[in-house]
Design a protein that fits this description.
The chain is of the alpha/beta class. 39% of the residues lie in helices and 23% in strands. The protein is built from ten helices and 14 strands. α4 packs parallel to α5 and α9 packs across α10. 45% of the residues are buried.
Length: 309
Amino acid sequence: MRALVLALNPSIDVEWRVPRVRWEEKNEVIAERRWPGGKGVNVARWFQHLGGVSRLLLPLGGATGRELAAGLRRERLPATIVPLRETTRANVIVTTDGQGQLRFNPLGPRLSRDEWRSILQSTARELTRADIMILSGSLPRGVPADAYARLIELGHRARVRTLLDCDGAALAAGVVAKPFLVKPNVDELARWSGRALRTPTAIERAASAMLRRTGAHVLVSLGGGGALLFRPANEPPLTATAPSVRVLNTVGAGDALLAAVAVRIAAGEVTEEWLRAGVAAGTAAVSCPAGRLPARSVVRKVSRRVSIE
């Protein structure tokens, strides 16, 4: 089973380590790391790491785009690249010793109509060789707000199940297109529903409303609290509680969760195992430095401690 993963607004992720952030003062960077990043790229890395076969489709431009493409080759991540005139962005993560992390994400390049058309054409070609499609991350400037909805429609025509992880107007349009699974976090679900979700009951009502729109699956990530999976056909929702671990980084945890769920879906496993695998991967991800993947044995060990109800 092969996954096609679209990363429409990828980045080079840059981590700067500083002892602490001093406002209005010079901050010395004691270490820097760079690696291919952005949500779709993270998902593809995790999908492959967990034993799946995937192909990335992503637009790249400029020196940053060349750096990202070289990084994918080093990691042996197969990719179909759509060339861009403008330069791919670089996201900066500032990691401190005791103040947590700061993240700075540029908007990224603006795509032309021809570049967007090339993405649609490349997606249609790649879908003929895919069993599942994963759409993850923000939309680049220049593409329509219903870009993911159009891609989901291509998936329907190719009889390929689509998993969607995005926010805002892209999420609202994507839900209407009825993907196989939508993965909002609580904040994204709240923006979609138009109201604050301060209680478990409020979260359940909003997720149930999204489920009625898609007719398929809604996976709500709860950060360190685990995740909820709402299922069609009047099946009761499932709750997964994450085990406690030492948190070193929170970048990419949701991407790990989505990739692990996708691997289990592609393998034809039951929904309980989707959820267990996803929460285990997300939990293992936060125990590693940003951009690094834990050993699969660590993910299996965490999985045995995930509680499903």
